[in-house]
């Protein structure tokens, strides 16, 4: 589990970006697969989730996860939902409710407002980022009274620029939207590469959030020991596990 250098300073919250170590799953899901959307055994995923909850210090029934759909949908959580909600961002000011995000190359984002004691967890792949999941979430912070200058944002482990190869139409989509997006792409051996965490960081900066930490761990790189959808595809595996990232107010 990786901790943020910025968030670890606050004693009233708990958080963690978990890699694939420390669970019970077998085979291609070894070992801390927390994705119910995978074809792993449900009982093993459930045990892995329980291990995560124990590490964070929350009840296993108090971890809120989403049916993630690469959207800009935000859910404000005041109590534990009776069923899995669809969307890609969670926000709460309630103690003891843990917010969790699942990723396998996309970026997990954790946000904390220490003034209003408000937290958020966001799932941001390129689609969600492009659809403004960041600004949609921050609108909810503003409604709750947050000053963006107070926010602490941590963009967790995701696929790095050097391994995120994209097609020309992907590049054109971003540049058509905003010419300055060119800076998030680079070229090598006639191939195009995209910086997901760089693009997300700029989204926050554009909105006046200056306190942004990037955890520079590439999920595609085998030695970092994260689940990676792209790595699994390259290795011709038929499925992959999911990493979990969690934040909670104590």
From the spread of the alpha carbons, the general shape counts as globular
Q: What low-confidence regions span 5 or more consecutive residues with pLDDT below 50?
A: none
Strand line-up in the sheet with most strands:
4-6-9-8-10-14
Say which CATH homologous superfamily is assigned: CNF1/YfiH-like putative cysteine hydrolases
Kindly provide the name of the CATH class: Alpha Beta
What is the residue-averaged pLDDT?
Answer: 98
Number of helices: 6
What is the structural class?
alpha/beta
- Biggest sheet layout: 6 strands, mixed
User: In the CATH classification, which architecture applies?
Assistant: 4-Layer Sandwich
Helix content: 10-25%
CA(first)-CA(last) distance: 18 Å
CATH topology: CNF1/YfiH-like putative cysteine hydrolases
Number of strands: 15
| Count of spatially separate domains | 1
* H and E string: EHEEEEEEEEHHEEHEEHEHE
Strand content: 15-25%
Work out the radius of gyration: 17 Å
Structure summary:
With 250 residues, the protein is an alpha/beta fold. The protein has six helices and 15 strands.
């Amino acid at each position: 589990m990786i901790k943020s250098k910025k968030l670890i300073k606050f004693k009233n919250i708990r958080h963690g970006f978990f890699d694939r170590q420390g669970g019970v799953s077998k085979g291609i899901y070894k070992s801390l697969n927390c994705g119910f959307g995978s074809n792993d055994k449900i009982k093993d995923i459930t045990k892995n989730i329980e291990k995560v909850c124990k590490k964070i210090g929350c009840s296993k029934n108090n971890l809120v996860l989403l049916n993630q759909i690469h959207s800009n949908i935000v859910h404000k959580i005041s109590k534990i939902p009776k069923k899995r909600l669809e969307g890609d961002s969670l926000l709460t000011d309630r103690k003891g409710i843990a917010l969790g995000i699942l990723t396998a190359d996309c970026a997990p984002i954790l946000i904390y407002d220490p003034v209003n004691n408000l937290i958020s967890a966001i799932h941001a792949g390129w689609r969600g980022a492009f659809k403004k999941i960041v600004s949609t979430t921050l609108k909810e912070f503003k409604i709750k009274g947050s000053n963006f200058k107070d926010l602490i944002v941590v963009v967790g482990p995701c696929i790095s620029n050097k391994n995120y190869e994209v097609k020309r139409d992907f590049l054109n989509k971003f540049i058509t939207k905003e010419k300055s997006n060119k800076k998030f792409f680079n070229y090598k051996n006639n191939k195009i590469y995209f910086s997901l965490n760089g693009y997300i960081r700029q989204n926050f900066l554009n909105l006046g959030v200056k306190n942004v930490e990037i955890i520079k761990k590439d999920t595609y790189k085998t030695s970092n020991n994260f689940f990676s959808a792209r790595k699994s595809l390259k290795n011709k595996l038929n499925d992959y596990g999911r990493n979990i990232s969690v934040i909670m107010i104590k």
